[in-house]
Amino acid sequence: MTTLTHHEPLNALLRRMPKAELHIHIEGSLEPELIFRLAQRNGVALKYESVEALRAAYAFKDLQSFLDIYYAGASVLLKEEDFFDMAWAYFERAAADNIVHAELFFDPQTHTERGVPFETVIRGLHHACQRAHQELGISSRLILCFLRHLSEEDAFRTLEQALPWRQYFIGVGLDSSERGHPPSKFERVFARCRDLGLHIVAHAGEEGPPEYIEEALDLLKVERIDHGVRCVEKPELVQRLVRERMPLTVCPLSNVKLRVFDRLSDHNLAALLEQGLVATVNSDDPAYFGGYLNQNFIELFEALPQLGAREAYQLALNSFEASFVERAAKDAWKQQLDHVFGAAL
Ligand SMILES: [Zn+2]
């Protein structure tokens, strides 16, 4: 790798810098082409006639309209190799984006509800993680997410099914429809997860109010907030997040697709960084929201002219610091990052 010259365009730097992705739902990386291929392989009937018809249906008006189609897409995943193929396709794209580390969310209930055993899901994903490390040099971890529109009892059942595979995942999260499903609904199951030594994260403050972020902190005792962009509505909460150095995994293109912000130029990511928050950039559900990680960086930096090389460096560094890996790995990635930026800062 060469170091940056003053003339290197920002886009090239954004593409080239090493980075970690901490908010990617692996089921949300399922591209229409792969959905059709798996549907054919497994003999699953889809209600869309073609790849184009499916892609055309990706015009969401809010989180719920997205989730409806997301669950329909996941219905083609039945066998271990389907989960492998899905995660492998993501890792190939991640390598192209210079992602050196990824923490993947997966939603077991989306599959166990359809009669697919937990074991099938986790073995396929784990195998892809192993191969990504061997062949692409990408390190990765799995984080099990509970679907918050289902009950806490259901989450407890899922945790029980997962326990024999405890060594294959490092933490738990909370995703799906936020409004009407506050973190407090899952207080007891997260307490159990903490006792098991699992890392804790939760989606909060995407569509839901800043009070959901406070609940995630106080009741679930999260180590990262997924999204969290609505924290700005409560200045004392922003101060607390800064003071506690609580990372936010922000997803710019997702936020526009799901109408959290009308346009990318309205996005508050630059303001979050300005206020000292440990924000990161992530792709969320890239097959559905218009782009993988580098696309998020490039479109965001184009839309927000106050973002430059210094902020690019900070965002990449934040992604390493906020990851759940040992200090030595974080330090090694920071060295790579320093090398790429060279005298640009
Ligand atoms: Zn998400």
Q: What does the model show?
A:
There is one protein chain. This protein is an alpha/beta fold and 345 residues long. It has a single domain, classed as TIM Barrel (Alpha-Beta Barrel). It has 17 helices and 8 strands. It has helices at residues 10-16, 32-42, 51-56, 63-74, 80-96, 108-112, 118-136, 152-162, 187-195, 210-220, 235-243, 252-257, 269-274, 286-289, 293-303, 309-321, 327-341, and strands spanning 19-25, 99-106, 139-147, 171-175, 199-204, 224-227, 248-250, 279-281. The protein has an 8-stranded parallel β-sheet with strand order 1-2-3-4-5-6-7-8. Strand 3 (139-147), helix 8 (152-162) and strand 4 (171-175) form a beta-alpha-beta unit. The radius of gyration is 19 Å and the shape is globular. Mean pLDDT is 94; it is low at 1-7. The chain binds zinc ion. Zinc ion binds at residues 23, 25, 175, 203, 226, 284.
Strand content: 5-15%
Order of helices and strands: HEHHHHEHHEHEHEHEHEHHEHHHH
Strand order of the largest sheet: 1-2-3-4-5-6-7-8
Q: What is the count of helical runs?
A: 17
Helicity, as a percent range: 40-55%
Annotated CATH architecture: Alpha-Beta Barrel
Largest sheet: 8 strands, parallel
Gyration radius (Cα, Å) is: 19 Å
**Poorly predicted parts:** 1-7
The end-to-end distance, rounded to whole angstroms, is 17 Å
Mean of the pLDDT scores?
94
